[in-house]
Amino acid sequence: MKANLKTILALTIKASLSKPTKKSELNKVKIKLITKEPHLFYIEEYTKTQSFHKTLNYDECLTYVKKILGKTFKAALFQTAEKDYQFLTNKRGFTRLLEQEPSKEKNETALEKTSHNKAKNYLLAEDRPIPFLVALGIMNKEGKVLAKKQKKFRQINRFLEFVDDILGDLCKEAEPTEKNPLSIVDFGCGKSYLTFALYHFIVIEKKIPAKIIGLDLRSDVIQSCTELAKTCKYTDLLFFNDSIENFLSDKNNSQKNLDLVISLHACNTATDYALASAIQKKAKVILSVPCCQHELHSALQKQPLPSDNPYEPFGRYGIIREQFSALTTDLMRALLLEEAGYKVQVLEFIDIEHTAKNLLIRAVKRKTGSLKDKTKNSPTPSKSTESLKILQKELGIKLTLETLLADEKP
Question: Where in the chain is the domain with CATH 3.40.50.150?
Fold first, then answer.
């Protein structure tokens, strides 16, 4: 039976356990496949007056079913795309397995929904309530994503894809434990949609020990985030009303070197301060979505380039000057990160139709070890320095990030 149950569960789309024993507090249990990769199940437990919910991976679900099948519940039905499997337990405790023709139409529809989620790569699946998403008004209490919040829900999942891509290698490098969890800081966390998503994904879904800190200068935002973290019982998700520089200063904070630094939509040079702090703390991975890159744009407005400068045409028209300045600023930031010893990618964060601030800079610290190189033909620091000097000479500007990094050098 055990071998059969293991195989059946691997194919299960949904299941239900019924006919509880007299001593059982539960009346029924429903199991629903959320995603195949990772293999996750959504569990609903029902008493006479309440229902309880949890998410289990394949191994956890198998252990859970073995514990209650034939003991707490005398009957169970497992539905797959090919067959239905029914377990029945008699009074003497003997359990037999019956194979039946599938509830084909229903099973295929359920499988299609699972495949649909997989195709979208939703790491936080729909149709199951997640406390912070419900509290933030993205989901209703039944786990349905509200129509007006579909874009935000896709954005959250897209961000988690970038994290998931490097998470395994980051854990091999950092080797997190309960006593030495991953150290993560979100600079300028704002309302913290992504900060909460990151905690839920890493700590709750992946069960990786992590301590995440969100910083923001708005006290009302920090207060509401702190209250929500307590409500969700996210014990290692903390928020502080503080600046980046003050929080990480030696006299104010004994924060160890950081594993992951996040800076999402930090306005103008706030992105530079976040990147400089991350480099200073030797962050293993940096994820940054820059916003409102005014520094170069203002310089080109104030002092247009001479007519013989190859970049002069980019400053003639307002909208082109603005977009050129934003892209060039982020290019120079990427070059400075490479110069500081990082392997860098500039990726599309979310479709341009959702937000104009759609570039994500992902930087992984160069180090001989298990953290894999996520880039191909990554330029050397010396090549990056050469390219950076050319841009600085032609545009007549050094970014705030370079000034901050220069101040750190002995």
Answer: 137-408
Rounded Cα distance, 63 and 56, in Å: 10
Instruction: From residue 201, give the alpha-carbon distance in Å to each of 66, 91, 207, 283.
Output: 26, 43, 8, 20
Q: What is the mean pLDDT of the chain?
A: 85
* pLDDT tens digits, 136-190: 889 988 888 998 888 889 889 989 999 998 998 899 999 999 999 999 999 988 8
Task: Give the phi and the psi of residue 229 in degrees, each rounded to 5.
Answer: -60, -40
> Which residues lie closer than 8 Å to 111 by C-beta, 6 or more apart?
13, 81
How far is Cα 50 from Cα 101, in angstroms, rounded to an integer?
33
Computed over its alpha carbons, how large is the radius of gyration of the chain?
Answer: 26
User: What HEC string does the chain produce?
Assistant: CHHHHHHHHHHCCEEEEEEECCCCCCCEEEEEEEECCCCEEEEEEECCCCEEEEEEEHHHHHHHHHHHECCCEEEEEEECCCCEEEEEECCCCCEEEEEECCCHHHHHHHHHHHHHHHHHCCCCCCCCCCHHHHHCCCECCCCCECHHHHHHHHHHHHHHHHHHHHHHHHHHHHCCCCCCCEEEEEECCCCCHHHHHHHHHHHHHCCCCEEEEEEECCHHHHHHHHHHHHHCCCCCEEEEECCHHHHHCCCCCCCCCCCEEEEEEEECCHHHHHHHHHHHCCCCEEEEEEECCHHHHHHHHHCCCCCCCCCHHHHCCHHHHHHHHHHHHHHHHHHHHHHCCEEEEEEECCCCCCCCCCEEEEEEECCCCCCCCCCCCCCCHHHHHHHHHHHHHHHCCCCHHHHHHHHHCC
For residue 109, give both structure tokens.
């529809």
- Tokens 């101040």 -> residue: 407
Residue 221 token pair: 């935002």
- Express each pLDDT in 207-261 by its tens digit: 999 999 999 999 999 999 999 999 999 999 999 998 887 887 755 555 567 899 9
CB neighbours of residue 104 within 10 Å: 13
What pTM does this model have? 0.67
Identify the CATH class of 137-408: alpha beta
Distance (Å, whole) CA 18 – CA 73: 6
Structure-token match 């007299």, residue found: 22
User: 161: which 2 tokens?
Assistant: 């894809």
